[in-house]
Description:
The chain is mainly alpha-helical and 151 residues long. The protein contains 7 helices and 3 strands; from the N terminus they run H-H-H-E-H-E-E-H-H-H. Helix 3 (53-71) packs across helix 5 (104-114). The chain starts with a helix and ends in a 15-residue tail after the last helix. Mean pLDDT is 83; it is low at 130-145.
Amino acid sequence: MCAEGMxxxxxxxxxxxxxxVRLPLDYSVGSLRVVDxxxxxxxxxxxxxxxxxxxxxxxxxxxxxxxxxxAGAVWVDLPDGHLLRSVLGHPVAVRMPDGRVWNPLGxxxxxxxxxxxxxxxxxxxxxxxxRSARSRRGLSRFPDNVSGKAC
Length: 151
């Protein structure tokens, strides 16, 4: 899994789900409410995390793509050994325009494991509207070795 492939992962998920069920997965902020409801359905169905791992990956990629398209984020690869890679649990993340790096894949798993307290729609609204003090001063929160370059 690398940053370059995340948009494709999201598109494949939307195509696969769209072939079975008509859902308004149009990469809009509002569509994240649909994602929240999809995850609620998985939870109510009693599936374990391992049983729905592929679906959660597709949903996480979709959430990241909403951040890319609606908030100006970019997918980034986290280099081997980088602290964020172990903290986030994934080799990819999104970098917001202010330099902050976030984990839509992990947040999607949290939504599945914890429930509605981890709303993905709210996640977008919080991330998009926040600016760190460092970003207001023009400083990046993370070093240059977290880049937007493909793997």
